[in-house]
UniProtKB/TrEMBL annotation:
Transmembrane segments: none annotated. This is NAD(P)H-dependent oxidoreductase. GO terms for molecular function: oxidoreductase activity. It comes from Flagellimonas olearia. Residues 10-186 form the Nitroreductase domain. Gene3D superfamilies: NADH Oxidase (3.40.109.10). PANTHER family: NAD(P)H NITROREDUCTASE YDGI-RELATED, NITROREDUCTASE. Belongs to the nitroreductase family. Its cofactor is FMN.
Length: 210
């Protein structure tokens, strides 16, 4: 089996982490950099990623996460929060970054900027939030696969009260909404689910070649 499939077969949604094992600074940086390099629509990345290691903050998050042990036992907790609204500044910041990174004069990017603004800025607020939320899951997918390559265990989690996360982490005033949580660390030997075979649709059920 090729490495690309080995990594994906190895990973699973870890139910019990070993609270004594911590991710090294180097591996955590690699994981976060892989997440930063994720694709997004227009490259705009309309989200922010919070890396939570503070045990007191995680203890506050646990009750509003159905008391799941991963919240406090994992090495780190990564919260992906998407923009709930935005204006032209989202595009302007990206265009400035693009100009600086690729050494392109700003006035040479005016048409590109106006195209993005015309497609995004005038959308209803709920549509903007939905679009931004979809971008989060692209980043999450990249984080999951990068973690597997680093042999870091993960558990993606939607079982939490987003409004309470927003209050605890101060997201609402930043026009952000907690969309999905990723617990990262190392599996406990007591986690019996690690030995269960994956249950997925067959290739015949899942894929159609046209």
């Amino acid at each position: 089996m090729s490495n690309i499939l080995e990594h994906r077969t190895w990973r699973y949604a870890t139910k019990k982490f070993d609270a004594t094992k911590k991710i090294s600074h180097q591996d955590l940086n690699s994981l976060l950099e892989a997440t930063r390099l994720s694709a997004s629509s227009y490259g705009l990345q309309p989200y922010h990623v919070f890396v939570i290691s503070d045990p007191e903050v995680r203890e506050r998050l646990k009750p509003v996460s159905w008391n799941q042990s991963q919240i406090t036992d994992a090495s780190h907790l990564i919260v992906f929060a998407h923009a709930t609204d935005f204006g032209e500044e989202l595009v302007d910041d990206f265009i400035t970054n693009l100009s600086d990174t690729r050494n392109i004069p700003l006035d040479g990017l005016n048409g590109y900027a106006e195209m993005m603004k015309s497609n995004l800025v005038g959308l209803p607020t709920d549509v903007k939030a939905s679009w931004a939320g979809k971008q989060v899951y692209i980043a999450l997918g990249n984080a999951l696969q990068a973690a597997a390559e680093l042999k870091i265990d993960t558990c993606p989690m939607e079982g939490f009260q987003a409004e309470e996360y927003n209050k605890i982490l101060g997201l609402t005033e930043k026009d952000l909404n907690a969309a999905v949580v990723l617990a990262v660390g190392y599996r406990s030997e007591e986690d019996q689910t690690q030995n269960l075979p994956k249950v997925r649709k067959s290739k015949e059920e899942l894929f159609t070649h046209i």
